[in-house]
Amino acid sequence: MNFQTMDYFIALAEERSFTKAAERLNVTQQTLSAHIASVERDLGVRLVVRRVPLELTYAGEQFLGYARRFKAEHDHMVHEFKDISDDERGLLRVGVTSTRGHIIMPHAIADFQRLHPGIEVDLNEGENEALVSLICDGRLDVMVGTVTGRVPRLEVSELYREEVVLVASNRLLEARLGDKVEQSVERVERTGDLSPLAGLPFLVLGRRDIPGTIAVRTFQKAGFTPRIAVRSKNAETLLALAARGGGACFSPMELVETTFSPRELVGMRLVHLGPDARYPIHVAWRTSAHPWSMVGAFCESLRQTVGGGGEQELRGAEEGA
């Protein structure tokens, strides 16, 4: 049993298929299957149930935890010795929530690679909760999103604060509200109560991302069941629909500003929802006795991109874990 064993088993557990895991690892399916069988003989237990889709046994779930911890420690060791030898080569795995990937990542990655051309960046876009799980499991080196509370073995630093606004075309508002547009919007912005706009069709993101969560919370506070016209994981698609009068969309303000030109915004109305629609965007990485210098360098590129950010660092509850 060695570090290759850990890599093989992690790939199999994540892909839930010998065929897909073998393709990912660039080995034959027979080689992978024989390797896993050998580990099972060494441990004296079955780790997987060989069916479609593949399932992990209880022993397999426990072994997966060990494998990920071993791999994380191995990665930390490799990174430390790369720093000692001034070897700026390797793979930096970055996660970012899909609603803001193209807002900050093009600038941050370009700045980072200009300074560190030997580092390959593997960019993963997904929903906020999924990214938190990935970085806690050691499958990401850096994550940009929102981390709620204190998470063991995770370092968290605030980058900036983001605001979700409700975006609707003037045409839609006038068609649904008539001469009550100004009165209704003013009331929403003054009280944070969305009920004056209850008659609009809404465009919402998934509940596992922060704008989607804020949408649900705003509807609940207003006390009405919204008419959802479209649900999507793609915020840009929803904004495009909003611009065409397809509904009112909950979106980060920064995304609105980077999606529409000033001329296009003339035909749109941005409704501010109050302090409950503002939240922090964090950069997070796993706790280590020797954090990889490339993680710190990438965080600095992120801070340069957003023009600074929060200085307060929140440490995981298990210091040094």
**What is the 3D form?**
elongated
CATH superfamily of the domain at 162-278: Periplasmic binding protein-like II
Number of helices: 13
Please identify the top-level CATH class of the domain at 162-278.
Alpha Beta
| Ends distance | 25 Å
Give the fraction of residues assigned to helices. Answer: 40-55%
**How many beta strands in the DSSP annotation?**
12
Q: What integer is the average pLDDT?
A: 87
CATH structural fold name of the domain at 162-278: D-Maltodextrin-Binding Protein, domain 2
Care to describe what's here?
- With 321 residues, this protein is of the alpha/beta class.
- Among the domains are: 1-87, Winged helix-like DNA-binding domain superfamily/Winged helix DNA-binding domain (Arc Repressor Mutant, subunit A, Orthogonal Bundle), CATH 1.10.10; 162-278, Periplasmic binding protein-like II (D-Maltodextrin-Binding Protein, domain 2).
- Helix content is 48%, strand content 22%.
- It contains 13 helices and twelve strands.
- Strands 3, 4, 5, 6, 7, 8, 9, 10, 11 and 12 form a ten-stranded mixed sheet that branches. Strands 1-2 form a two-stranded antiparallel ribbon.
- Helix 1 (3-15) crosses helix 4 (58-84) and helix 2 packs across helix 3.
- The radius of gyration is 23 Å and the shape is elongated.
- The two termini are 25 Å apart.
